[in-house]
Amino acid sequence: MTTSLRLAIAGFHIESVSFLPVAATVDDFERAALRGKAIIEQLRGANTVIGGFIDVCEREQVETLPLVHTALGAIGPATDQAVTRYAGEIAAGVRDAANRLDGVLLFLHGACWAQSFPDPERFIINEVRAALGTDKPLMVAFDYHANLDAGTLEGATAAFAYRKSPHTDTGDTGRRAARCMVRTLRGEISPVWAIAKPGVLVPSIFSATALRPLADIIDEAQRIEQESERFIDITVMAGFSYADSHNTGFSVLCVTDADRERANAIANELSQRIRHERHALYRPLPVHQIQGALDRVTRELALERAPGKPYVLLEHADRMNDSTYLLAALLERGVQGAAVPFLWDSAAAQQAFDAGIGRTVRLRLGGHSSNKAGPPLDVTARVLWAGLKRYRVSGTYMQGMPVDLGMTALLDINGISVSVVSAFAFAVDGDAFTIFGLRPEDFDIIVLRSKTHFRAFYEPIAKEILIVDTPDYGTADLCTLPYQRLEKRSVFPFAEDTHFDVRSYLEP
Ligand SMILES: [Zn+2]
Asked: Which CATH number fits domain 2-282: 3.40.309.10, 3.40.50.10350, 3.30.2310.20, 2.130.10.10?
């Protein structure tokens, strides 16, 4: 009887900084797209939502119909065409197989932004729902940085999201959604959901789930789950503050077994707690300015080097991996022993390759992605390595996921090790070094652009992690960003009655 279940699987994933000028096109998504059997072959066993879907389906002997999956990670907007195209492709796949399908497992980010879609995920869910019909379950798994409200989830039977940032539980999130699906189809549970929004935004760096008081609120959600005898699934989501939408910000999602009242009560209670703790949520860690951070690190390194324990400088406001503020400041000071992994600049990577390994080349490096990425740097670089680079993630975040960096070069720029890549990829673990035969522990200073995911790998090895704010689109000072769709009157930190000055929290 169980062998007769058949589920469609699909995914469309992008985290959009809506203020960035360049939108991801269908071509960009196509480069990351998998279809049909390739989805199963590539993502089986990977710590990703789709990997989690596949895991449960194979264990439960559920037949899968893999449609399309594309994931671009955290960049700028998506084009309208891209949203229409993948919503259409997924819906068409579901419609063609609707008679043979028992349900759909969908993986979406929740913070996609596109010009003509106030809520792209809502559009995708509704298209899939229309194709599937009203009676069959549609379970959606989201990122923890999803901006959701009840409208987004209207067409979903139940929804789930990562509970951790760094997102080390991506596979588990897929498993939660898939298990809920299988139990629903077997008649064991009848999921209903509720969502509540506290009207709170924080910068992504403060969305790390180990930070208090956020960690305490998430623990409380876990405690409620563990003490419940009936099925219940609670996700606290930080939202993504750099996607300008009417539903940007925190939300609490609660799925119960046929108990809507309880789902509502729990979502509201946790949401109120977030609202209450909003000031503390916005300042769990100090934020440094460039020169202050470099003064401090270079002073401490001059006093005592800590072999094997690099300082991590987090250029967190850089959303496109090509900001030049920190690299420029390091070069200006003549700092040695620093590394800047995975700077996104395909033209520079190609030029380095064309020059050849061992040669010296003049490059105009970085700062291309927007008017806030800092000026491109004119540098003379020695090419230590250049070529095409692919690998599989070895760290806990997205372990097993294939990464294709495209044309890549490892450069030495006045004693600073800079790797330049053609594909958009975050350096979050040791792979950014080991793929070149290097070790992160051998550097004194490492400049990263990750927000929270780097912590799984770097917290244990770092001498210290300093968050450095730069005038980029991912700044810690949300009040400087040009929101249009967000109703700022009603949300923190913009609402006037809060008297909240973000700048006062910056270290000199
Ligand atoms: Zn996320």
From this structure: 3.40.50.10350
